[in-house]
Amino acid sequence: MMTRETTKRLLTAGSIIIVVAIIAGYAYFASSGLIDGPSITVTSPSGGSSGNIIYANVSTSTIIIAGIAKRVNSLILDGRPIVIDPQGNFSQTLLLFPGYNVETMQGQDRFGRTTQMNFEIVYTTE
């Protein structure tokens, strides 16, 4: 038979376990940005992709590179900074040369970790 003292100890231990579990869950949630690092999701141009390489064939001399950058403090496209809004959205218009164009986008988080996207764009004038 359980005594009143045993019941109090079980309730206290159970409460402590629940509080520790909540704190651990919150700590994991709050640190997920540290664990995951920066990421770039490209919504335009639409074409094929393989890993961090985006392929596109276009028939116009300009193209818009747009998407969402998460956990990124700075975003650079071939040495030029790109503006990111508070939600992480970005959009940049590029002037293409006829033929094969290669562009590199790099995002960096506040801890110096980087992620990179490469664009291989073929501009045909015919």
Structure overview:
The protein is an alpha+beta fold and 126 residues long. It folds into two domains: 1-36; 37-123, Immunoglobulins (Immunoglobulin-like). 26% of the residues lie in helices and 46% in strands. It contains one helix and nine strands. It has one helix at 4-36, and strands at residues 39-44, 48-50, 53-58, 62-70, 74-77, 80-82, 89-95, 99-108, 114-123. A six-stranded mixed β-sheet has the order 2-3-9-8-5-6, with no helix packed on it. A three-stranded antiparallel β-sheet has the order 1-4-7, with no helix packed on it. Strand 5 and strand 6 (80-82) form a beta hairpin. The radius of gyration is 24 Å and the shape is rod-shaped. The N and C termini lie far apart (90 Å). The mean pLDDT is 89.
CATH class descriptor name of the largest domain: Mainly Beta
**Strands in their spatial order, largest beta sheet:** 2-3-9-8-5-6
| CATH H-level homologous superfamily name of the largest domain | Immunoglobulins
Task: Summarize model confidence as the mean pLDDT.
Answer: 89
Enumerate how many helices there are, as a single number. 1
Task: Please name the CATH topology of the largest domain.
Answer: Immunoglobulin-like
The fraction of residues assigned to DSSP E strands is over 45%
Helix content: 25-40%
- Overall outline: rod-shaped
